[in-house]
Amino acid sequence: MPTSPSALFDLTDRVIVVTGATGVLAGSAARYLAAQGARVVFLGRDQTKLDTAVGEVTRSGGTALGFSCDVLDRPALERTRDAVLAQWGRVDVLINAAGGNQPGATITPDKTFLDLNLEAYRQVLALNLDGTVLPSQVFATALIAQKRGVIINFSSMAAARAITRVVGYSNAKAAIDNFTRWLAVEFATKYGDGLRVNAIAPGFFVADQNRRLLLNEDGTPTARGQSVIDQTPFRRFGNTPELHGTLHYLVSDASAFVTGTVVPVDGGFSCFSGV
Question: Would you call 32 a catalytic residue per the annotation?
Fold first, then answer.
């Protein structure tokens, strides 16, 4: 294993698969990793967005592939895995960043828990939790064969603390935290210390899905957005590139003795009592 600081963080030619890579946070992360010399596989459902993202990377001198793939479709995931192995011969990292919410699994101010749409709730659980477990199963076959590899799951501030309204999303992300720890132990005890599983828990970053919840049209915080800022010691939302350093550390050899962790990147939101 490399010991110099630069070698520990070197990502040159690492094959990194990113699900949900047409989204704001995951897409930014995927482009960043490509800029560090990794070979990045963009997975998403929108072919146009995939083509645009891969084109941006290649024009910048990076290396990327794009696959239209639903994280709940095992045959599609298996075809994607096989195509990546055929092209590049290995998979070093899987980043499970696909996820999201929908209105029916959210309790709006004019509703109560009794109004929860269970079908929408199940769909949100499936997208976030099954959409993490299933890609992990499929791509883990490559990691296990190599006896080396990393899985990074995307958690959320909603996992560890009660955040009003987002019951389905919160439940799913809490399960992802547990799954991260469980799988870290499973891999380490059965396959050795070459396989690691961790999670990153972003605080409040403005993305397409939550923009209207957090910001007014003029860019000022909504009432809910201001509540978030008041609960964040840094007194602001996160900037997307501020996820990159933690993610880089977790996928690199610098974190070779780190597994089963959920790392918050949240401006202090998770540690502040509000007093």
Answer: no
